[in-house]
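Catalogue entry: protein
Contents: sequence, fold tokens
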Amino acid sequence: MANLLDYLDWRGDLTLEQAPFNEVDNLILAELSFVDFAGIVPAPGEGESVPLHQAAEAFFKTVPAGEKIEMGVLVPDAIPDMLRKMADSNRFRDMKLNCFVSWLDTEKAEQFAALTVETGDGLLYLSFRGTDDTLAGWKEDFLLACLPEIPAQKMAVQYVRDVARQFPRRRLRLGGHSKGGNLAVYAGVYAPGSIQKRIHAIWSNDGPGFHDDILDLPEHQRVADRIVSIVPKSSVVGMLLEHEEDYTVVDSSQQGLMQHDGFSWEVLGDHFVKLS
């Protein structure tokens, strides 16, 4: 069955004007924040947006010719191929990238990274990176299950504030895969009311849930109908903690925990193959 890379081959020639933004586009942009755009894409407030195809060209120049790009154990090796296909496609090549941040403090168990994409349809997609191979990232995942708030969640809220200030009046999509999905929801819930009104959708792609207390907050209720949770058929990560919102179950070519890999989610046309 087809996956994200096949989708880019099938529909990469269609602009968002020809085919509106969809759930598969969402996961592709969620995975994009795993690329290290340091020195290529400016941080919030530090420069003009960079077309995706230019950012991709600059990124691949940092890799010696013929050398395999190692993404790590947890991060899909298919992401560099995804970036190449995006840069060659009409759909993604002219999207603009800005506000790249990557923070790591191993001693404090803090790991946070995010990227903003001007999708070309008048909206922004704020992509929050999920867990990488750093020890800090693993520690934060463990803390997520037992603390009411982790550092990355606080950083995600501030990131939304910074991006909203830099791009006033633009509507927002927030999204991420794994921990990134949790950060997207958390940032949407705790964003100021004026920013919440600008949120078009919040995408959690197999992201962990929350403790019960956050689900009862009025801040959560204000955005609950815009939260889209997608999980594979045997989800483990996405079923952690509590989810109030409905979630969509999609088919995967993998088994067990390996279904967490978004590149295993089966794609048909402009959507995932759904089981419920």
